[in-house]
TrEMBL record:
Biological or metabolic pathway of the protein: Pyrimidine metabolism; UMP biosynthesis via salvage pathway; UMP from uracil: step 1/1
Name of the molecule in the record: Uracil phosphoribosyltransferase
Catalytic class of the enzyme: transferase
Domain of life, per lineage: Bacteria
Organismal lineage: Bacteria, Bacillati, Actinomycetota, Actinomycetes, Micrococcales
Gene Ontology biological process terms in this record: UMP salvage; uracil salvage
Cofactor: Mg(2+)
UniProt EC number: 2.4.2.9
Species of provenance: Rarobacter faecitabidus
């Protein structure tokens, strides 16, 4: 869990039911940039030579193969811009997923990922980790394509969701979850309490 006063402040405004969509979108972007700092701590790098106007020295470059960033639509799309600013060389894949609000099961309506991601560091973006069903399915797609190193960046998580993801992944891969705050619990409708409501609706408006 990220522990920083700026993150706590922005998250509090994000939770506020009176925060409008433009402010919500800006805060999501700012928060992901702060979380990405922690999430990319172990991004693979290589040593390179660089010539400054004064001398030649050794520096660091993000190594190839390039990391892969995958926002889970809709709500994860709100995190892409903030992540891309920090990791501009990363490739971007897309997953469109929807939680059936009656069964709480995840349904995939779009899957646009590279065919082989063996050896790639992958970053999944989704602001909300509730029951964990969506993230578990998304991680399974990445593991089927050869990923072994997955980092999920979320804004809020329920303890139940974190446990479910951990149990599902087991020792199949290295999965790290970077989250701004772990909330109390899920309510009967599978919403995070206290949470922030439906992140997709707050970013983009209500759809039927
Ligand atoms: O952990 P889970 O119980 O699976 O719930 C979390 C999922 O629910 C939300 O998406 P939603 O289905 O509302 O789609 P949206 O992003 O289009 O609003 C959220 O962005 C996660 O993807
Ligand atoms: O609290 C929740 C749970 C699932 N999806 C959301 O957007 N919010
Ligand atoms: Mg939603």
């Amino acid at each position: 869990m990220a522990d920083h006063p700026l993150i706590a402040h922005k998250l509090t405004v994000l939770r506020d039911v009176n925060t409008d969509s433009p402010t919500f979108r800006r805060l999501v972007e700012e928060l992901v940039a702060l979380l990405a700092y922690e999430a990319t701590r172990e991004v693979r790098v290589e040593t390179v030579e660089v010539t400054t106007p004064v001398a030649t020295t050794t520096g660091t470059h993000i190594s190839t193969p390039r990391p892969l960033v995958v926002p889970i639509l809709r709500a994860g799309l709100g995190m892409l811009e903030g992540m891309s600013k920090l990791l501009p060389t990363a490739e971007v894949g897309f997953l469109g997923m929807l939680r059936d609000e009656t069964t709480l099961e995840a349904v995939t309506y779009a899957n646009r990922l590279p065919q082989d991601i063996t050896g790639r560091q992958t970053f999944l973006l989704d602001p909300m980790l509730a029951t964990g069903g969506t993230l578990i399915m998304a991680i399974d797609y990445l593991l089927e394509l050869g990923a072994k190193d997955v980092t999920a960046i979320c804004l809020l998580a329920a303890p139940e969701g974190i446990d479910a993801v951990r149990q599902s992944v087991g020792d199949r891969a290295e999965v790290k979850i970077v989250v701004a705050a772990v909330d109390e619990r899920l309510n009967a409708k599978g919403y995070i309490v206290p949470g922030l409501g439906d992140a997709g609706d707050r970013l983009y408006g209500v759809v039927d």
